[in-house]
Amino acid sequence: MNKSNRTLGNPEIRKALFASQGTLILISAVLILVLDGTSSLSKWYHFHIIHMLQGAGTGLLFVLLQAAAEQWLPNHWINDGGINKQLIQAFRLPELIVVMLGVAWIEETLFRGILQSLIGFWAANTIFALIHFRYLKRPVLLVFIIGASFILGGLREVSGGLIAPILAHFFINSLPVLLEKMNNNKST
């Protein structure tokens, strides 16, 4: 069987997701300890309603753009290889929500909090786009991930914290999956 068409089982999906996110947490922890960046942490997570609205609004807008692309573009241009379906099968709905929020928090802390502060806007957001290498052979999805990366970085710059990009990232990742999960639950 061609590896690119291989579907991972639920335990494999869970293990791969937790391993990748665990690696990002470890990298973040090392960078914070080495750079003594703990003083910035409290500044990154300040809650203001405007930042929450910016994040939620940006995430919703991005999901609407994705939905429009799915309606108007050929499926082979936007097919993600079934990763959403695999996540839906691997996690129950409450778990999925917690996992998606965790992914958004972990990735935004590393890329927008630590790296964007350390190496700058362009480098941090380019690295973020590149770690999503599964999209390299799907140009439309690659454009979406590059756009999302720089939009999330822009939210960090505008808000001065991580709440807006975390919420946007959560909405971008979770809404399509949650909608698909709810549709699957209705049809069964």
From TrEMBL:
The chain crosses the membrane at residues 16-35, 47-69, 90-107, 113-133, 140-156, 162-179. It comes from the Bacteria. One of its GO terms (molecular function) is endopeptidase activity. Residues 93-174 form the CAAX prenyl protease 2/Lysostaphin resistance protein A-like domain. The keyword Cell cycle does not apply. InterPro entries: Rce1/LyrA-like_dom. Pfam families: Rce1-like. Keywords: Membrane, Transmembrane, Transmembrane helix. The keyword Membrane applies. One of its GO terms (biological process) is CAAX-box protein maturation. This is CAAX prenyl protease 2/Lysostaphin resistance protein A-like domain-containing protein. The lineage of its organism: Bacteria, Bacillati, Bacillota, Bacilli, Bacillales.
